[in-house]
């Protein structure tokens, strides 16, 4: 039975990284119905306060990890602390490492044209035994969306990684998951940019010091507006603790 905490009325699983990896594996090996794994961070949770459809999708997921230190801080404010953050990029990195020699087929969907190609090439270099059955950029229209879905279904995909940004990736999966012959779909945000070498992750010491957001801001100053969502998120969490959210 899942152990959950609600943050801004969104379910977050109380799992550490090791437990999350094992849970994804369980879902992936079970092909009885497609499973959905989401990776909410503070920006996504704040957005879900205003986007009821996104909130419903997040709460329908089979696993929701605490992707970001802001979510962990919120859990402490609410008096039900999460053990650690379970960043989506770290989660999929462990899955690549641990499933590289397993009979598991991956498919990558997302990113700008050319990005997911480089990400795939880099992963094949680092994990030669990883089964990557296909990939496609995330700029879909009605015609190529149906082609991609057909390709995924033909390739017996176990793990589908979708990185289209929030909330497009969540809504794409909500609209199409029941038509996909897969084990599990995971929303991965901008992970393909990192895997392609387009964006660098913060040094490990900055990750451990909860300063990854600052490193990302130095790389992409245009993200400053998005960073303002964190103080708003903390305000909403404090408000939700003492007052009902409107």
TrEMBL record:
A Gene Ontology BP annotation from the UniProt entry: cell wall organization
The keyword Transit peptide appears for this protein: no
One Pfam family recorded for the sequence: Glyco_tran_WecG
A molecular function GO annotation: N-acetylglucosaminyldiphosphoundecaprenol N-acetyl-beta-D-mannosaminyltransferase activity
EC number, as in UniProt: 2.4.1.187
Protein name, entry field: N-acetylglucosaminyldiphosphoundecaprenol N-acetyl-beta-D-mannosaminyltransferase
Domain of life: Bacteria
InterPro entries listed in its UniProt record: TagA_TarA, WecG_TagA_CpsF
Pathway: Cell wall biogenesis; teichoic acid biosynthesis
Family per similarity comment: Belongs to the glycosyltransferase 26 family. TagA/TarA subfamily.
Function text: Catalyzes the conversion of GlcNAc-PP-undecaprenol into ManNAc-GlcNAc-PP-undecaprenol, the first committed lipid intermediate in the de novo synthesis of teichoic acid.
Top enzyme category: transferase
Catalysed reaction equations from the record: UDP-N-acetyl-alpha-D-mannosamine + N-acetyl-alpha-D-glucosaminyl-di-trans,octa-cis-undecaprenyl diphosphate = N-acetyl-beta-D-mannosaminyl-(1->4)-N-acetyl-alpha-D-glucosaminyl di-trans,octa-cis-undecaprenyl diphosphate + UDP + H(+)
Keywords: Cell wall biogenesis/degradation, Glycosyltransferase, Teichoic acid biosynthesis, Transferase
NCBIfam families, per the entry: wecG_tagA_cpsF
CDD domains linked: Glyco_transf_WecG_TagA (cd06533)
């Amino acid at each position: 039975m899942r152990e959950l905490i609600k943050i801004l009325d969104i379910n977050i699983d109380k799992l550490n990284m090791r437990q999350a990896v094992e849970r994804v594996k369980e879902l992936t090996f079970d092909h009885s119905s497609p499973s959905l794994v989401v990776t909410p961070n503070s920006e996504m949770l704040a957005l879900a306060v205003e986007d009821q459809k996104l909130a419903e999708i997040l709460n329908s997921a089979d696993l929701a990890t605490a992707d970001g230190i802001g979510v962990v801080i919120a859990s402490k404010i609410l008096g039900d602390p999460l053990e650690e953050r379970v960043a989506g990029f770290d989660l999929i990195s462990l899955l690549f490492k641990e499933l590289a020699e397993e009979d598991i087929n991956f498919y990558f969907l997302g990113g700008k044209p050319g990005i997911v190609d480089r990400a795939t090439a880099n992963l094949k270099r680092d994990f030669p035994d990883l089964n990557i059955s296909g990939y496609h950029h995330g700029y879909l229209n009605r015609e190529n969306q149906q082609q991609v879905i057909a390709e995924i279904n033909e390739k017996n995909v176990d793990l589908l990684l979708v990185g289209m940004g929030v909330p497009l990736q969540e809504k794409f999966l909500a609209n199409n998951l029941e038509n996909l012959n897969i084990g599990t779909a995971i929303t991965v945000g901008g992970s393909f940019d990192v895997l392609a070498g387009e964006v660098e992750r913060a040094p490990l010491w900055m990750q451990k010091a909860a300063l990854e957001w600052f490193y990302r801001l130095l790389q992409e100053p245009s993200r400053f507006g998005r960073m303002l969502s964190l103080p708003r998120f903390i305000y909403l969490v404090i408000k939700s603790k003492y007052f009902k959210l409107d």
